[in-house]
Amino acid sequence: MQPPNLMVLRSKDPVYATGNKRCLRIWSVLIAEFYRIFVKENYCTMELTMTSPVSFTAEAVTEIKRLMNAEGFDVTHQLRIGVKGGGCSGLTYVLGFDQKEEADEAHEFQGLPFIMNKSHGIYLMGMEIDWQDGLNSRGFVFNNPNASKTCGCGTSFSV
User: Within this chain, do residues 23 and 101 fall inside the same structural domain, yes or no?
Assistant: First the structure.
């Protein structure tokens, strides 16, 4: 089914050019009709795709999988990413293995499942977790675009 043709007003049309109340009425009718046709009757559809709120570098994925495959790992635990109050900048990153709780959402990034509290998404959306294993630094590094300030050690931040 094709949507009906809508009347198009051009700047040379006298109704459009006058700017009077009649013109405003016509525009409000056109907007209401557009909404009815394209939104309510689903002529226009929109798809939203939820991607993982957090991404990992290949090195981080490798290190996390190594930890999960280690002897003695409790397979009932899942990788948890989150925040908690504290640290020198106000909030501290949480990265560890834990039981899933009621307020958690399950996510996956390139085959790596993790859980995150729903309310932590506003602080962590778009963050990338990296693993560095060099002479100057060893450990997970958090690259968070939402952080307005971070501490020197990199595990604490503020928004």
Answer: no
Q: Is 138 helix (H, G, I), strand (E, B) or coil?
A: strand
DSSP string of 26-49? HHHHHHHHHIIIIIIT-SS-----
In this structure, which amino acid lies at residue 149? K
Nearest to 92 by CA among 158, 159, 156: 156
Q: Which domain holds residue 111?
A: 54-158
Please, which residues have CB within 8 angstroms of residue 14's CB and are 6 or more apart in sequence?
none
Q: Which two tokens stand for residue 84?
A: 């908690």
Class of residue 144 by CB neighbours under 10 A (exposed 0-12, middle 13-18, buried 19+): buried
CATH assignment at residue 66: 2.60.300.12
Examine the domain organization and report whether 21 and 60 are in the same domain.
no
> Which alpha helices (H) appear in the chain, and where do they start and end?
14-18, 21-34, 58-68, 121-124
d(CA 146, CA 58): 22
User: For 40-80, what is each residue's pLDDT tens digit?
Assistant: 566 555 565 557 889 999 999 999 999 999 999 998 999 99
